[in-house]
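Backbone shape codes
____________________
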Amino acid sequence: MNKSNGKQALRNSALAARERLAEAAGPRASLTIARRLLGDFVFMKGAIIAGYAAVQSEADPFPIMATLAKQGHALCLPQTRGKDLIFRAWKPGDPLVVGRMNVPEPNDKARERRPDLLLVPLLAFDKAGYRLGYGAGYYDRYLHEARAKRTIYAIGIAYAGQEVDDVPHDETDELLDAVVTENGVTRFRRDAS
């Protein structure tokens, strides 16, 4: 089986597993994840934080983002443009439009932002810090380009049961800096290459 087929097979099983995990964890898991993240990380004053609008069974970062907004942080959400990912200003209560792949996103009038930290969705993650996404490569491309120019961090938001032994990866896959689950925080070492 080639790497591409292996990733797709893992995506299929990881999606089914995440749906079971989300149902078992219930809506309170997102609040627990928020408490763990907010209790473990220090957010630099003025840091711009990017989240995402959870779809399907993704762990929901909105409780985290609501608290960060109250603390005065500027927030943003991703918007897809062709093969690129950009981030536009958003705060709790702002309307969202349905974007590509039915993912809610800010409209074109929202100001473009350059986030310092990304909260990212995932299907699976491993002990090395690799994440399995949906296969379009938006976050990997964005992180690769942004990390070449500035310091930017990526934190996966997940259920603990989404950890797998190994996520197939190649040179285009970007490492996470940490993953936060309902059970705790795992930090990864990202060596400069």
Notes: The two ends are 29 Å apart (CA to CA).
